[in-house]
Design a protein that fits this description.
- It is a single chain.
- With 702 residues, this protein is α/β, with parallel strands linked by helices.
- 33% of the residues lie in helices and 13% in strands.
- Among the domains are: 166 residues, Nucleotidyltransferase, domain 5 (2-Layer Sandwich); 161 residues, Nucleotidyltransferase, domain 5 (2-Layer Sandwich), CATH 3.30.420.150; 28 residues; 85 residues, no CATH class.
- The protein contains 22 helices and 20 strands.
- An eight-stranded mixed sheet has the order 14-13-6-7-9-8-17-18. A five-stranded mixed sheet has the order 3-2-1-4-5. A three-stranded mixed sheet has the order 10-12-11, with no helix packed on it.
- Helix 6 packs across helix 14 and helix 9 crosses helix 13.
- The chain is globular.
- The two termini are 36 Å apart.
């Protein structure tokens, strides 16, 4: 099956669908290479930027035409995934399509038809693993999306694998997760011990498995606020503006828009003498008063909504008390874009600071629109369009209200100054109450990664038979909760990686991975401790190959320069060890070849004997040798020359001494003969004066 496992997952959102491809070592391979400390960690997943692809619009647009979702929407995504998963690995690769907000809004019958068609199309057009349609092709709730995001963030930060390096106090080593999209916002965190006991029924039980087969369990609180995403909040804000003025008013002052900007209620700019200018309905007129914008967006938090289960944060939604001494949050999506696209382009490595952020937003949003429009044309804030810029002031005010008055993030950080710097390795953590991120360790913080981490850990065999996944936290329960969500397939259904590799070696088979799916660290080791020796070994192989391919004369000359002696000649004193070794490796000129030159025959008159093409095929018996070259052009033809036996007597190329005594060399010349590093399987350098082949082309053996 090969040493790598692959996974394909599609994030089917409201505006489009994005495919992600992930890769990790087969559990048996990972176990065989892991140190005792690494055995206590989760499987290590790898992805690349070009392994993702997005198409628009979303799958929810196929509600009334489900049969079109495959050829018109999924086809390019599946083709992209198949181009990055090796052909022989496809049947072992799980496929997931998990839909979010857009599909939740479809009528039940349309949603079921689209999901059914997706599963049928994938099964009919690929060999990806889709054993259970309900598990692999589904619409996930916002809570599940938030939980996967929490897994992804902590996985990348190192809170799972190195808890001792992320001790925040009170035996707490994980990070909270905040996500804000267009329609909803999510929060996920592990409460401190006191709150976890007090609100145990409100938590999710999450179980993963490390490489040594041991379970990792966490109790996590996760919830979602529908209507609290940036776009939905803006819609509710505009509705409140309309209700706050007289119905006969056509111009609605909007402090969240820059002064001088006029837009329709849908946000389209109204230019003088444009088609929009003749619209008689209400218009928004920007006043550029950011402080007023913050004040008017505060009521959108619904802080006064009845709380049926104390404590609540906003919208009447129950959330256990957050202990900011140990709960440090990372925010993605709108939290990142709204804090970094315009207001923090020069210091992306710094954590969020309320005072600095508010000053920058206020300075920007109080500018006249004409000045801002000129800055857009001059690329003052990078490649941002007018629509993004005109909306950023509202989003900034909403983010400030959500973070500080909604969730309760402290406005001033009490942590050490150096804690505001982004970490450069898994050994450092985010110690501020809040920090917006887009990537960690160069990997996008996507909930799809969290889903695949769960699946990869489910493939590690465990001795406790406790499945990987999540469900309701039922204290004291001895059985799985009824809503337990399994992570994926079963490890014992998969072929054994090391057994497959051993069988391939015996049979002489090799698996070639496409260049775009193989990196140097795949060959040289993924961890720093293994990469240096691997690199040295690789360079030695390259040098040896170059040395052997540079020609007999050049090799002999170079050897003489290195060891300070000329090539050995017949009748000369017994050579030293270096000379004898060079002779055995075929690095010195043979006496027969030198005798021809001494007799006055020009080098240009020296010919190779005729031989048939099939004579040098090492695969004539249906098998291949680890010591024989497998690629055409690497094996060196045999010269029809004389040889010297062990006693120094010249014998003919076809004499019994050549066939019986000299065949002990046992390997061909060059890379084909030396095999891997010129060493036989027993670990000793092959014995003999020079490499020999029989006339049939096969290697001579004892």
């Amino acid at each position: 099956m090969g040493k790598w496992r692959y996974g394909v997952i599609l994030d089917a959102g409201s505006s489009g669908t994005r495919v992600y491809v992930y890769r990790w070592l087969n559990s048996e391979r990972a176990r065989s290479q892991a140190s005792p400390q690494e055995l206590k960690t989760l499987p290590e997943l790898v992805t690349k930027k070009n392994w993702t692809k997005k198409t628009k619009p979303g799958v929810s647009t196929f509600g009334e035409k489900p049969t079109k979702v495959g050829p018109d929407h999924l086809a390019p995504l599946l083709e992209h995934a198949l181009s990055h998963v090796p052909h022989d690995q496809v049947e072992h690769t799980p496929f997931f399509l998990l839909a979010t907000a857009g599909m939740r809004l479809l009528p039940d019958n349309q949603r079921k038809d689209v999901l059914k068609e997706i599963c049928s199309y994938v099964r009919s057009n690929t060999k990806f693993q889709v054993p259970d349609c309900d598990l692999h092709i589904q619409v996930i709730p916002g809570e599940t999306e938030g939980l996967y995001g929490w897994v992804a963030a902590n996985y990348l930060l190192g809170g799972f694998d190195h808890p001792e390096e992320h001790n925040h106090g009170k035996d707490h080593h994980t990070y909270g997760f905040l996500d804000m999209g267009g329609a909803s916002a999510q929060i996920a965190f592990a409460p401190n011990a006191t709150e976890a006991d007090r609100h145990a029924d409100d938590l999710k039980l999450l179980r993963m498995r490390t490489l040594n087969g041991q379970p990792q369990e966490y109790r996590v609180f996760v919830t979602t606020w529908l209507g609290f995403g940036a776009n939905e909040a803006r819609r509710r804000y505009i509705k409140a503006l309309e209700e706050s003025v007289d119905t006969h008013e056509s111009e609605l002052p909007d402090p969240c828009l820059p002064a001088g900007l006029v837009t329709t209620m849908e946000g389209n700019p109204v230019e003088p003498s444009s088609d929009e200018d003749v619209v008689t309905g209400p218009h928004l007129v920007g006043t550029g008063k950011f402080a007023e914008c913050v004040r008017q967006t505060y009521p959108l938090l619904d802080k006064d909504k009845p709380c049926l289960d104390n404590p609540c944060l906003l919208g009447g939604m129950h959330v256990p008390a957050i202990d900011f001494d140990v709960n440090h949050f990372v925010g993605v999506s709108e939290y990142w874009h709204t804090t970094h696209e315009i207001f923090a382009a020069s210091d992306e490595g710094k954590a969020y600071d309320f005072n600095t952020y508010q000053e920058r937003v206020n300075a920007f949003c109080t500018q006249p629109w004409d000045d801002i429009a000129a800055g857009i044309k001059a690329r003052k804030w990078g490649k941002v369009d007018e629509r993004t810029v005109q909306e950023v002031c509202f989003k900034a005010s909403w983010l400030i209200n959500m973070l500080h008055d909604g969730i309760g993030i402290p406005r001033a950080s009490n942590t050490l100054p150096n804690s505001t710097v982004l970490p450069t390795s898994k050994g450092k953590g985010f110690l501020d109450p809040f920090q917006a991120v887009n990537k960690i360790q160069g990997t996008e913080v996507s909930w799809t990664l969290g889903k695949m981490v769960l699946y990869a850990s489910s493939q590690v065999p465990g001795d406790d038979f406790q499945p990987v996944g999540f469900g309701s936290n039922i204290p004291g329960a001895s059985s799985l909760p009824p809503d337990f969500q399994f992570a994926g397939g079963k490890a014992f259904d998969l072929p054994d990686d090391l057994a497959d590799e051993a069988a391939d070696t015996v049979a002489g088979n090799t698996t070639t991975v496409a260049p775009e799916t193989q990196e140097w660290h795949d060959v040289l080791g993924t961890s720093g401790s293994r990469r240096v020796p691997g690199l040295i070994l690789f360079l030695l192989i390259v040098l040896l190959a170059a040395f052997l391919l540079c020609g007999r004369e050049r090799r002999s000359s170079l050897w003489a320069k290195l060891f300070g002696h000329p090539p050995s000649r017949r009748g000369s004193p017994r050579p030293n060890f270096a000379a004898r070794l060079s002779s055995k490796l075929g690095l010195t000129r043979t006496p027969a070849y030198e005798r021809v030159l001494e007799e006055g025959v020009g080098a240009g008159d020296f010919d190779l004997p005729p031989y048939e093409e099939d004579d040098h095929s090492d695969a004539s018996e249906g098998t291949s040798s680890s010591r024989a070259g497998k690629a055409p052009g690497w094996a060196t033809p045999v010269l029809n020359v004389e040889f010297v036996d062990d006693g120094g007597v010249v014998v003919g190329a076809g004499s019994p001494a050549r066939r019986e005594g000299m065949s002990r060399a046992g390997s061909g010349l060059g890379l084909a003969g030396l095999g891997a590093f010129g060493v036989e399987r027993a670990g000793l350098v092959g014995r003999g004066v020079s490499p020999v082949r029989s006339r049939s082309g096969k290697e001579a053996v004892d």
